[in-house]
Write a structure and sequence with these properties.
It is a single chain. The chain is α+β, with helices and mostly antiparallel strands. The protein folds into 2 domains: about 30 residues; about 70 residues. About 20% of the residues lie in helices and about 35% in strands. A hairpin with a 5-residue loop joins strand 5 and strand 6. A 4-stranded antiparallel beta sheet has the order 2-1-4-7, with no helix packed on it. A 4-stranded antiparallel beta sheet has the order 3-8-5-6, with no helix packed on it.
Length: about 110
């Protein structure tokens, strides 16, 4: 076999191995790194670098973020963050300790606790 053919086979084998490894990655491995957020707070950031940091319970606050981003609910155990649509209806909730990717576009309001 020629050197070129051996190199091509080695490269193809390496790419196949990488592809198989990527295809078997677990969903839990896709979690984002936690964004900076003080204990007792709920924080979020969008792709433009706009962010919010809330700690006052029971107050629905407009956030003004849009597009893809991340959140971290670093509130005390047993507390929740509630996300709201523009019309004030509930979009969803996340328990303390939760972090994740989120599309901020439909979310206009956030309430800690």
């Amino acid at each position: 076999m020629s050197l070129r053919r051996n190199l091509n086979l080695a490269l193809a084998t390496s790419l196949l191995t990488v592809g198989v490894t990527l295809a078997t990655a677990h969903v839990s491995e896709a979690k984002p790194a936690t964004i900076p957020c003080r204990y007792g707070h709920v924080c979020g950031v969008d792709g433009h670098g706009q962010r919010f940091d809330l700690s006052k319970c029971g107050e629905k606050v407009p956030i003004g973020l849009s597009g893809p981003g991340e959140f971290f609910n670093n509130q005390t155990p047993g507390t929740w963050v509630t996300w709201y649509w523009a019309d004030g209806t509930v979009y969803g909730r996340d328990a303390s300790g939760q972090a994740g990717y989120i599309d901020w576009t439909p979310i206009w309001w956030v309430q800690a606790c």
